[in-house]
Structures are given as structure tokens and as C-alpha cells.
């Protein structure tokens, strides 16, 4: 059963105008912050590409079951079954299991707040906001501070999580004759559910339930009930690219970055590098979009007072609002791509110079062809 509350507030035109002018400072901060974000992203993308391309040229594929000391210090690619003889143990709940990774997942039954707002503008520039607060009970793997709820009375959560979620990782994972470094082990997945069988060493109040342990009333959960489950990563076949260091495979440190690639199953080196390059390209475009979006939001805040000024007439305010959003978008895209282009010139001057020269040649040829296809009109003698 949900508890629902509705709150209505009205802000005058003068109040909105004051808030809009205060937002200019925050907008300037966002615009200024977006520029170094875009600049840094281009440098990061280029360094990562250089690192992966250099690694692809240098990598040596080896047999995991036959270590060759001649490859010490080299970037190597190999594959096989990742195994361990370690028993991972959760000391709090007494769970022990032979696995590459062990994860304890703790959830507590708590109140959750959902907030939804709708805004309407009235004549004279005022703005009315109707906010609905909805409170439901549910499971969460992190503590929810009910002290920050709008309507905290009757919706109190416990002061903290009784136990936290934890992860454990085997320190001696073997891949044939090699020991995998922790950076590689951390990439192995996915997790699968593990059902513990020993309930002799549980914290007070916990009982076996389902695939884990429960404290409370599972048939009718109450606020503060806790359930605990476990997941493991079992031995599996992997392919890795890293630096051979005696009998181990560790993170390879290159001049402009690091390489520690892992894929599930048997995957050749070229495919692994291709996937890493694709992931880098996806991240680059995602950060470009994020940087331009931050810039657009900042510019909208800077231009927002113009919309509020004319919002005395809502119809005109909507038109100006759409116009300022469009202008902010155009400026953000232009300034964003100028920043990206400037970063390319800084990080890749030869390539950027070549692209600029090619663009100028294309523009010149295009203008020349347009002029030739549209000859200047010649003077003709008018009949007498």
C-alpha cells in the first residue's frame, strides 16, 4: 500500500526572474567545465588508440601451458581455463567456496520515496508546481536516509545497514603455467547464484531461506528485515592480453597507457584489440555527447532570463523558450565541435593539418566548379 502526498507551490514572476538570474552563474560554470571535459576526452581517446595500436603491433601469442622465459617483459596473448585452488571465505556468514570470485549481496526492506512534478504557467508570469510524493516499501542494497524524505513522519528507516555487501577475489588464479594478475581476475564473470549449505555460524537472528539467509519475517516483510544472498564466478575459459612477468601475466604499461584485456572464451588477439578499439570509440562519442549536453544546459541557463522576462504572456514565453533552446543548441554544437577540432590540432597536428588542407581544397574546387557552371552574363545589344 502506497502513501501519496501532493504539494502545490506558486512562484511569482519576480521570484522566477530572480532565480533565472542566479542560474546564470551556474550556467557559466557548466559551459566552462564542458570545455576541458571535451578537450581531455580527445586526448584520452587518442592516447588509448595509440596504446592499443602499439600493442596490436607488438603482441605475441603464446601457449598458456608452456612458459617461455624469452617472452618475459613482452606483451603476450594467450587463453585457457582460469582456475584456482583457493577457498574464498566470508567470515561474517561463514560461507566458504572454491571460486575465482565471491560476492555477498545484502538487502534491507526500507521505505522509498518517489517524486514527480508538473509545472504550469499562469498569466502574469507566475508558475505553479504540483509535486507528488509517493512512499512504498521495498528491498534496497544500500541504505536510504529517510531523514531527507519530504514527509518523514511514519516513513522512518533504520539508522544504517546492519551488514554491507562485500566482494572477495582469489589471489592465486592460474591460467596454465601462468598466474593471472588481480586486474584480470576482476574482469572475469558473470556471477552465478551460490546457495550456501552451512548454517552453523550465522549472525544472530538469521536463518536459511531460499538461496541465502534471512532475518525477519519472510512471509510478511517488515521495515528493517534483511536478506543475504551469495554469487560466485566459477572457473571458466578466458583469453587475455598482458605483460608476461616471469610466471605471471600483469598489466602492461605502455608509453601512453596500459593494456590488460580479457574476454570470455577463446578469442584471437586481433579480435580482442578490435573490440577494445570499438569500446574506446563508443566511450569517446559518449563523452563528446555528454560534454556538448553539459554545454547546452549551461547556455540554456544563461539565456533563461530572456524567456522569463517575456513569460508574462505564456504564449510568447513558450516561443522565446523554444528559440533560446535552439540558439543554445546551435552554439553548444558549434563551440563543442570547435573545441574538439582544436584538441585534434593540439594532439594530432599533422593529421588535423591534413584534414584542414583537404577541406580547403574541396571548398576551393567546389567554388571553382560553381563559378564555371554559372558564367557571368555577357552584354547584348538591344534592338533599335
TrEMBL record:
Keyword Transmembrane helix set for record: yes
Membrane is among the record's keywords: yes
Subcellular location: Endomembrane system; Endoplasmic reticulum membrane
Protein origin, superkingdom: Bacteria
A Gene Ontology biological process term: nuclear membrane organization
Sorted UniProt keywords: Endoplasmic reticulum, Membrane, Transmembrane, Transmembrane helix
Primary localisation category: membrane
Entry's Gene Ontology cellular component terms: endomembrane system
Transmembrane segments: 20-40, 282-303, 315-338, 350-368
InterPro entries according to UniProt: TMEM43_fam
Coiled coil: none
Membrane topology: Multi-pass membrane protein
Protein name per UniProt: Transmembrane protein
High-level lineage: Bacteria, Pseudomonadati, Pseudomonadota, Gammaproteobacteria, Chromatiales
Amino acid at each position: 500500500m502506497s502513501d501519496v502526498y501532493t504539494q502545490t507551490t506558486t512562484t511569482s514572476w519576480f521570484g522566477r526572474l530572480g532565480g533565472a538570474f542566479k542560474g546564470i552563474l551556474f550556467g557559466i560554470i557548466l559551459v566552462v567545465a564542458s570545455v576541458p571535459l571535451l578537450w581531455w576526452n580527445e586526448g584520452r581517446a587518442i592516447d588509448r588508440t595509440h596504446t592499443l595500436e602499439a600493442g596490436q603491433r607488438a603482441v605475441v601469442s603464446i601457449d598458456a601451458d608452456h612458459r617461455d622465459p624469452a617472452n618475459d617483459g613482452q606483451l603476450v596473448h594467450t587463453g585457457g581455463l582460469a582456475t584456482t585452488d583457493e577457498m574464498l571465505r566470508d567470515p561474517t556468514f561463514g560461507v566458504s567456496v572454491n571460486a575465482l570470485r565471491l560476492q555477498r549481496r545484502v538487502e534491507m526492506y526500507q521505505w522509498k520515496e518517489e517524486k514527480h512534478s508538473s509545472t504550469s504557467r499562469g498569466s502574469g508570469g507566475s508558475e505553479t508546481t504540483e509535486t507528488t510524493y509517493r512512499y512504498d516499501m521495498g528491498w534496497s542494497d544500500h541504505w536510504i536516509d529517510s531523514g531527507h524524505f519530504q514527509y518523514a513522519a511514519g516513513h522512518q528507516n533504520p539508522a544504517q545497514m546492519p551488514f554491507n555487501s562485500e566482494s572477495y577475489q582469489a589471489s592465486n588464479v592460474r591460467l596454465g603455467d601462468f598466474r593471472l594478475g588481480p586486474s584480470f581476475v576482476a574482469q572475469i564473470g558473470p556471477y552465478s547464484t551460490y546457495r550456501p549449505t552451512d548454517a552453523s555460524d550465522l549472525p544472530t537472528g538469521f536463518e536459511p531461506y531460499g538461496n541465502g539467509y534471512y532475518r525477519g519475517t519472510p512471509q510478511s516483510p517488515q521495515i528493517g528485515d534483511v536478506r543475504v544472498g551469495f554469487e560466485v564466478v566459477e572457473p571458466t575459459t578466458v583469453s587475455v592480453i598482458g605483460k608476461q612477468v616471469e610466471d605471471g601475466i600483469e598489466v602492461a604499461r605502455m608509453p601512453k597507457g596500459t593494456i590488460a584485456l580479457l574476454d570470455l572464451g577463446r578469442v584471437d588477439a586481433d579480435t580482442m584489440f578490435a573490440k577494445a578499439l570499438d569500446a574506446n570509440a563508443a566511450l569517446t562519442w559518449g563523452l563528446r555527447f555528454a560534454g556538448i549536453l553539459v554545454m547546452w544546459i549551461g547556455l540554456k541557463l544563461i539565456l533563461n532570463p530572456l524567456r522569463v522576462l517575456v513569460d508574462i504572456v505564456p504564449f510568447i514565453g513558450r516561443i522565446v523558450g523554444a528559440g533560446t533552446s535552439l540558439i543554445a543548441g546551435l552554439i553548444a554544437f558549434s563551440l563543442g565541435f570547435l573545441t574538439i577540432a582544436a584538441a585534434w590540432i593540439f594532439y594530432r597536428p599533422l593529421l588535423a593539418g591534413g584534414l584542414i588542407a583537404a577541406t580547403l581544397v574541396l571548398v576551393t574546387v567546389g567554388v571553382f566548379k560553381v563559378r564555371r557552371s554559372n558564367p557571368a552574363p555577357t552584354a547584348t545589344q538591344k534592338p533599335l
